[in-house]
UniProtKB/TrEMBL annotation:
Known catalytic reactions: uridine(34) in tRNA + AH2 + O2 = 5-hydroxyuridine(34) in tRNA + A + H2O
Rhodanese domain location: 125-219
Record's keyword annotation contains tRNA processing: yes
Protein encoded by which gene: trhO
Transmembrane regions: none
UniProt organism field: Tardiphaga alba
Protein name: tRNA uridine(34) hydroxylase
Matching InterPro entries: Rhodanese-like_dom, Rhodanese-like_dom_sf, TrhO, TRHO_N
Keyword field: Oxidoreductase, tRNA processing
Family: Belongs to the TrhO family.
Amino acid sequence: MYKVAALYQFAALPDFRQLQAPLRALCDQLGIKGSLLLADEGINGTIAGKDAEIDALVRELESGALFGGRLNNLELKYSRASMMPFLHMKVRLKKEIVTLGDPLTDPNKLVGTYVNAADWNALIAAEDTLVLDTRNAFEVAMGTFEGAVDPQIASFGQFKDFVARTLDPAKHKKIAMFCTGGIRCEKASSYMLAHGFAEVYHLKGGILQYLEDIPASDSLWRGDCFVFDQRVALGHGLVESQSIRPDLPINSEDFALTREAADE
Protein backbone atom coordinates (compact mmCIF):
# COMPACT_ATOMS: atom_id res chain seq x y z
CA MET A 1 0.00 0.00 0.00
CA TYR A 2 1.09 3.53 -0.76
CA LYS A 3 0.26 6.64 1.22
CA VAL A 4 -1.28 9.42 -0.87
CA ALA A 5 -1.21 13.00 0.38
CA ALA A 6 -3.36 15.70 -1.20
CA LEU A 7 -2.15 19.04 0.10
CA TYR A 8 -2.36 22.77 -0.38
CA GLN A 9 -1.90 26.05 1.39
CA PHE A 10 -2.30 29.64 0.31
CA ALA A 11 0.82 31.37 1.63
CA ALA A 12 3.11 34.13 0.38
CA LEU A 13 6.00 32.45 -1.47
CA PRO A 14 7.74 35.24 -3.43
CA ASP A 15 10.79 32.96 -3.80
CA PHE A 16 8.78 30.08 -5.30
CA ARG A 17 11.04 29.84 -8.35
CA GLN A 18 14.06 29.19 -6.16
CA LEU A 19 12.14 26.49 -4.27
CA GLN A 20 11.46 24.32 -7.32
CA ALA A 21 14.81 22.56 -7.69
CA PRO A 22 15.44 21.71 -4.01
CA LEU A 23 11.85 20.52 -3.56
CA ARG A 24 12.13 18.27 -6.62
CA ALA A 25 15.47 16.93 -5.40
CA LEU A 26 13.98 16.09 -1.99
CA CYS A 27 11.03 14.26 -3.56
CA ASP A 28 13.39 12.25 -5.77
CA GLN A 29 15.59 11.42 -2.81
CA LEU A 30 12.58 10.10 -0.91
CA GLY A 31 11.20 8.13 -3.87
CA ILE A 32 8.02 10.19 -3.97
CA LYS A 33 5.97 10.62 -7.15
CA GLY A 34 3.12 12.93 -8.05
CA SER A 35 2.61 16.58 -8.92
CA LEU A 36 3.28 19.73 -6.91
CA LEU A 37 2.52 23.26 -8.09
CA LEU A 38 4.34 26.30 -6.72
CA ALA A 39 3.28 29.91 -7.18
CA ASP A 40 3.65 33.23 -5.44
CA GLU A 41 0.38 32.45 -3.63
CA GLY A 42 1.32 29.02 -2.24
CA ILE A 43 1.55 25.28 -2.94
CA ASN A 44 -0.88 22.66 -4.26
CA GLY A 45 -0.58 19.04 -5.28
CA THR A 46 -0.92 15.32 -4.70
CA ILE A 47 1.97 12.98 -3.98
CA ALA A 48 2.39 9.31 -3.16
CA GLY A 49 5.05 7.13 -1.56
CA LYS A 50 5.77 4.89 1.39
CA ASP A 51 4.50 6.08 4.76
CA ALA A 52 7.86 7.13 6.18
CA GLU A 53 8.85 9.03 3.06
CA ILE A 54 5.56 10.96 2.81
CA ASP A 55 5.75 11.78 6.52
CA ALA A 56 9.32 13.04 6.07
CA LEU A 57 8.34 15.32 3.20
CA VAL A 58 5.34 16.72 5.07
CA ARG A 59 7.57 17.49 8.06
CA GLU A 60 9.96 19.36 5.79
CA LEU A 61 7.14 21.33 4.21
CA GLU A 62 5.58 22.28 7.53
CA SER A 63 8.61 23.00 9.67
CA GLY A 64 11.84 22.47 7.71
CA ALA A 65 14.37 25.00 6.50
CA LEU A 66 13.24 24.87 2.86
CA PHE A 67 10.02 26.84 3.44
CA GLY A 68 11.03 28.42 6.74
CA GLY A 69 7.78 27.71 8.55
CA ARG A 70 5.58 29.39 5.94
CA LEU A 71 3.61 26.18 5.32
CA ASN A 72 2.61 25.62 8.94
CA ASN A 73 -1.10 25.42 8.10
CA LEU A 74 -1.19 22.85 5.30
CA GLU A 75 -4.57 21.43 4.37
CA LEU A 76 -3.72 17.71 4.22
CA LYS A 77 -5.81 14.74 3.23
CA TYR A 78 -4.37 11.22 3.35
CA SER A 79 -5.66 8.17 1.55
CA ARG A 80 -4.33 4.82 0.35
CA ALA A 81 -3.50 3.29 -3.02
CA SER A 82 -2.94 -0.38 -3.74
CA MET A 83 -0.39 0.54 -6.45
CA MET A 84 1.75 3.64 -7.06
CA PRO A 85 -0.83 6.02 -8.58
CA PHE A 86 1.68 8.28 -10.38
CA LEU A 87 4.29 7.56 -13.03
CA HIS A 88 6.54 10.58 -12.46
CA MET A 89 7.40 13.38 -10.05
CA LYS A 90 6.73 16.91 -11.26
CA VAL A 91 7.28 20.22 -9.49
CA ARG A 92 5.86 22.98 -11.70
CA LEU A 93 5.87 26.75 -11.46
CA LYS A 94 2.53 28.48 -12.05
CA LYS A 95 1.00 31.94 -11.90
CA GLU A 96 -1.66 30.54 -9.57
CA ILE A 97 -1.84 27.23 -7.70
CA VAL A 98 -5.45 27.02 -8.85
CA THR A 99 -6.21 29.16 -11.89
CA LEU A 100 -9.06 31.66 -11.73
CA GLY A 101 -7.53 34.74 -13.33
CA ASP A 102 -9.17 37.44 -11.23
CA PRO A 103 -6.90 40.09 -9.67
CA LEU A 104 -9.38 40.90 -6.87
CA THR A 105 -9.33 37.32 -5.58
CA ASP A 106 -6.83 36.67 -2.78
CA PRO A 107 -7.49 33.74 -0.41
CA ASN A 108 -4.57 34.94 1.72
CA LYS A 109 -6.75 37.93 2.65
CA LEU A 110 -10.38 36.80 2.39
CA VAL A 111 -12.20 33.46 2.20
CA GLY A 112 -15.66 32.16 3.00
CA THR A 113 -16.81 30.39 6.15
CA TYR A 114 -15.51 26.85 6.63
CA VAL A 115 -18.07 24.17 7.38
CA ASN A 116 -17.01 20.84 8.88
CA ALA A 117 -18.26 17.63 7.31
CA ALA A 118 -20.43 16.91 10.36
CA ASP A 119 -22.39 20.14 9.78
CA TRP A 120 -22.56 20.00 5.99
CA ASN A 121 -25.79 17.99 5.57
CA ALA A 122 -27.84 20.46 7.60
CA LEU A 123 -26.45 23.42 5.67
CA ILE A 124 -27.15 22.09 2.19
CA ALA A 125 -30.59 20.76 3.19
CA ALA A 126 -31.78 24.25 4.18
CA GLU A 127 -34.24 25.73 1.69
CA ASP A 128 -32.45 29.08 1.54
CA THR A 129 -29.06 27.56 0.63
CA LEU A 130 -27.82 27.46 -2.97
CA VAL A 131 -25.40 24.53 -3.24
CA LEU A 132 -22.64 24.91 -5.85
CA ASP A 133 -20.33 22.24 -7.19
CA THR A 134 -17.23 24.21 -8.25
CA ARG A 135 -15.63 21.31 -10.13
CA ASN A 136 -15.44 20.60 -13.84
CA ALA A 137 -18.19 18.87 -15.78
CA PHE A 138 -16.48 15.49 -16.14
CA GLU A 139 -15.93 15.37 -12.37
CA VAL A 140 -19.54 16.27 -11.62
CA ALA A 141 -20.69 13.53 -14.01
CA MET A 142 -19.00 10.92 -11.81
CA GLY A 143 -20.62 12.10 -8.57
CA THR A 144 -21.92 15.11 -6.66
CA PHE A 145 -24.07 16.14 -3.71
CA GLU A 146 -27.81 15.76 -3.89
CA GLY A 147 -29.40 18.96 -5.23
CA ALA A 148 -26.13 20.69 -6.15
CA VAL A 149 -25.90 23.07 -9.10
CA ASP A 150 -23.50 21.98 -11.84
CA PRO A 151 -21.88 25.07 -13.42
CA GLN A 152 -21.03 22.96 -16.51
CA ILE A 153 -17.51 24.30 -16.85
CA ALA A 154 -14.54 22.70 -18.58
CA SER A 155 -11.96 24.31 -16.29
CA PHE A 156 -12.05 26.22 -13.03
CA GLY A 157 -11.03 29.41 -14.81
CA GLN A 158 -14.56 29.52 -16.25
CA PHE A 159 -16.18 29.62 -12.80
CA LYS A 160 -16.14 33.43 -12.62
CA ASP A 161 -17.97 33.59 -15.96
CA PHE A 162 -20.62 31.21 -14.63
CA VAL A 163 -21.09 33.42 -11.56
CA ALA A 164 -21.34 36.62 -13.61
CA ARG A 165 -23.81 35.03 -16.01
CA THR A 166 -25.98 33.10 -13.57
CA LEU A 167 -25.83 34.40 -10.01
CA ASP A 168 -26.95 37.64 -8.37
CA PRO A 169 -25.76 38.83 -4.91
CA ALA A 170 -29.17 40.39 -4.29
CA LYS A 171 -30.98 37.13 -5.00
CA HIS A 172 -28.53 34.42 -3.95
CA LYS A 173 -27.81 35.41 -0.38
CA LYS A 174 -26.61 32.09 1.10
CA ILE A 175 -24.24 29.92 -0.90
CA ALA A 176 -22.56 26.64 0.05
CA MET A 177 -19.84 25.31 -2.25
CA PHE A 178 -17.63 22.26 -2.41
CA CYS A 179 -14.79 20.72 -4.41
CA THR A 180 -12.47 17.71 -4.20
CA GLY A 181 -10.08 18.80 -1.45
CA GLY A 182 -11.05 22.38 -0.68
CA ILE A 183 -8.66 24.51 -2.71
CA ARG A 184 -11.02 25.55 -5.49
CA CYS A 185 -13.59 26.60 -2.89
CA GLU A 186 -11.03 28.77 -1.12
CA LYS A 187 -10.53 30.71 -4.32
CA ALA A 188 -14.17 30.61 -5.40
CA SER A 189 -15.38 31.89 -2.04
CA SER A 190 -12.77 34.66 -2.08
CA TYR A 191 -13.94 35.65 -5.56
CA MET A 192 -17.62 35.72 -4.61
CA LEU A 193 -17.05 37.73 -1.44
CA ALA A 194 -14.96 40.23 -3.41
CA HIS A 195 -17.86 40.59 -5.87
CA GLY A 196 -20.65 41.32 -3.43
CA PHE A 197 -21.93 37.95 -2.23
CA ALA A 198 -22.46 38.30 1.51
CA GLU A 199 -22.84 34.78 2.91
CA VAL A 200 -20.54 32.15 1.39
CA TYR A 201 -19.73 28.78 2.97
CA HIS A 202 -17.44 25.98 1.83
CA LEU A 203 -16.85 22.39 2.88
CA LYS A 204 -13.61 22.18 4.88
CA GLY A 205 -11.35 19.47 3.50
CA GLY A 206 -13.66 19.06 0.53
CA ILE A 207 -15.45 15.95 -0.66
CA LEU A 208 -12.56 13.77 0.46
CA GLN A 209 -12.99 14.85 4.08
CA TYR A 210 -16.74 14.29 3.86
CA LEU A 211 -16.32 10.78 2.41
CA GLU A 212 -13.89 9.94 5.18
CA ASP A 213 -15.96 11.34 8.05
CA ILE A 214 -19.58 10.65 7.06
CA PRO A 215 -20.83 7.05 6.85
CA ALA A 216 -22.65 6.04 3.68
CA SER A 217 -25.87 5.57 5.63
CA ASP A 218 -25.94 9.29 6.53
CA SER A 219 -24.46 10.63 3.32
CA LEU A 220 -25.98 13.05 0.82
CA TRP A 221 -23.18 12.30 -1.66
CA ARG A 222 -24.22 10.39 -4.77
CA GLY A 223 -21.70 8.52 -6.93
CA ASP A 224 -17.90 8.56 -6.72
CA CYS A 225 -15.32 11.31 -6.34
CA PHE A 226 -12.88 11.73 -9.21
CA VAL A 227 -9.26 12.08 -8.10
CA PHE A 228 -6.38 13.19 -10.27
CA ASP A 229 -4.29 10.05 -10.21
CA GLN A 230 -4.50 6.51 -11.55
CA ARG A 231 -6.91 5.37 -8.84
CA VAL A 232 -9.42 7.51 -10.80
CA ALA A 233 -12.16 7.66 -8.16
CA LEU A 234 -12.79 7.14 -4.45
CA GLY A 235 -15.93 6.26 -2.55
CA HIS A 236 -17.00 6.42 1.09
CA GLY A 237 -14.17 5.65 3.44
CA LEU A 238 -11.81 6.84 0.68
CA VAL A 239 -11.68 3.35 -0.82
CA GLU A 240 -10.80 2.94 -4.47
CA SER A 241 -13.96 2.76 -6.57
CA GLN A 242 -14.69 -0.20 -8.81
CA SER A 243 -17.49 1.49 -10.79
CA ILE A 244 -15.73 3.64 -13.39
CA ARG A 245 -17.59 5.18 -16.31
CA PRO A 246 -15.90 4.27 -19.63
CA ASP A 247 -16.40 7.72 -21.19
CA LEU A 248 -14.31 9.59 -18.60
CA PRO A 249 -10.61 10.35 -19.20
CA ILE A 250 -9.03 7.55 -17.20
CA ASN A 251 -6.39 6.22 -19.57
CA SER A 252 -4.04 9.20 -19.55
CA GLU A 253 -0.36 8.31 -19.28
CA ASP A 254 0.01 10.79 -16.47
CA PHE A 255 -2.90 11.87 -14.31
CA ALA A 256 -0.79 14.69 -12.92
CA LEU A 257 -1.16 16.40 -16.29
CA THR A 258 -4.92 15.82 -16.20
CA ARG A 259 -4.92 17.50 -12.79
CA GLU A 260 -3.14 20.58 -14.09
CA ALA A 261 -5.34 20.80 -17.17
CA ALA A 262 -8.39 20.75 -14.92
CA ASP A 263 -6.94 23.50 -12.70
CA GLU A 264 -7.40 21.55 -9.49
